[in-house]
Amino acid sequence: MRRLPLLAPLFVLMLAAACGGGQTDSAAVPKPVAYPRVDVPDSAYVGVDAPGVTLRVNESADVNVSPSADGAWVDIGYGTFGAPRVYLTLTRCGAGGMDEVMANRRERMGLNLGGQRYELVELTTPSGWQCEMAVARGSLTTPVQILAHNDRDVLSGAAVVAYPDSLPPDPVALAPVVDFLARDMLVMLTNL
Questions:
Q1: Which residue from 50, 81, 80 is spatially nearest to 63, judged by alpha carbons?
Q2: Second label for 33, Cα 20 to 30 Å away, from 97, 135, 153, 156?
Q3: Complete DSSP assignment for 50-95
């Protein structure tokens, strides 16, 4: 029984050390940079009819097809971080105006890229569409653009992201959005 009173001061010292009672440095430590969690749509697609072509579009996206005199405008919206929208233009130009339309769309893509580095994916579909997709991971506004044509139609478009002003400009925060947009637009092109 005499051991207990002798060990009591030792237990008090151990508890004080464990509780940080001897710590005199109370400087604040900043937390690491965090990015918002982005809900990415699943990779499930449906067919959407536009004049002369069926487009494979993510089933969770809102799609609006507006016919025009020489084709159609297709607006695809996603309800996730940055409220991304894909604006497509389908132009029926025949053999005569193809070169002019393609030159105009290539110039537009170059202006949207604004000197950003980009990845270029080129492919030809079994039905004869020649396709290009530019992915500019450093761009906060138009990170993914496409240009495709067959013998009579041109499909061009860009994904536009409304990056929040409340966040510092950082392509890493936008990376999940760019990844799923590139995935969805590649599915669209390969299924033309």
A1: 50
A2: 135
A3: ETTEEEEEETTSEEEEEEETTEEEEEEE--STT--EEEEEEEE-TT
What SS3 state is found at 189?
Answer: helix
User: Among residues 178, 186, 168, 167, which one has the least CA distance to residue 142?
Assistant: 178
What average pLDDT does this structure show over 43-50?
95
Environment class of residue 44 by beta-carbon count within 10 Å: exposed (0-12), middle (13-18) or buried (19+)?
exposed
43 three-state secondary structure? coil
Nearest residue to 85 via CA among 163, 28, 25, 153:
163
pLDDT in tens, 139-156: 888 999 999 999 999 999
The rounded percent of the chain whose pLDDT value lies above 90 is 59
pTM of this structure: 0.79
CB 140 within 8 A of CB 178: no
Query: One-letter amino acid identity for 144?
Result: V
What confidence category does residue 31 fall into, taking pLDDT thresholds of 50, 70 and 90? confident
Contact call for residues 85 and 144 (beta carbons, < 8 A): no
- CA nearest 115: which of 138, 132, 133, 131? 138
Sequence-distant (6+) residues with CB within 8 A of 167 are: 36, 173
